[in-house]
Amino acid sequence: MISGKFAITLHILTLLSKFPDEYLSSDFLAGSMNINPVLVRKEIANLKKHNMVESREGKNGGTRLAKSVKDISLDDIFKMTFEKVSLGYAKNDPNPACPVGKKINQNLDALYDDINNKISVQLKDISLLEFTDKF
């Protein structure tokens, strides 16, 4: 299902790009988004796993970009935050004896794959640098 992870991650990376030489705290990042710092730390952990950011602990600790903004595409961010966008499935398994029920999930899978491919194609051509230049 669709969540706000992409928007949160993009917000974090945009803020970090505006302060490239500073380590920003999760409290500062969360304050910009008006969300709980725990949510920010979860996304920072994912960004660290993908080598997008580096962090340090302590009084002057925080997080900063580990890659150049021109080397990060919005598709990179999309793929880090979603395995696959899905608009969902019925709560119960469909009736396999029904002509629609036996193929609905298979057809939804194909539709969702197509949607994901189209999203990826569009986002691939937009760098984080291009996006952050709007601010």
Task: Summarize this structure briefly.
By secondary structure, the protein is mainly alpha-helical. It has six helices and two strands; from the N terminus they run αααββααα.
Number of DSSP strand runs: 2
Residues in helix, %: 40-55%
Radius of gyration: 18 Å
Order of helices and strands: HHHEEHHH
Average pLDDT for all residues: 91
Distance between the termini: 29 Å
Structural class: mainly alpha
Strand order of the largest sheet: 1-2
Runs in which pLDDT lies below 50 for 5 or more consecutive residues are none
- The DSSP helix count reads 6
Percentage of β-strand residues: 5-15%
Bulk shape: elongated
Q: Mind summarizing the main beta sheet?
A: 2 strands, antiparallel
Protein name: Rrf2 family transcriptional regulator
Organism: Flavobacterium rhizophilum
InterPro entries: Tscrpt_reg_Rrf2, WH-like_DNA-bd_sf, WH_DNA-bd_sf
Describe what you observe in this structure.
The protein has 135 residues and is mainly alpha-helical. The chain has 6 helices and 2 strands, in the order αααββααα. It has helices at 5-18, 26-33, 37-49, 74-81, 104-124, 128-132; strands spanning 53-56, 62-65. A two-stranded antiparallel sheet has the order 1-2. Helix 2 crosses helix 3 (37-49) and helix 4 packs antiparallel against helix 5. The model has no long low-confidence stretch (mean pLDDT 91).
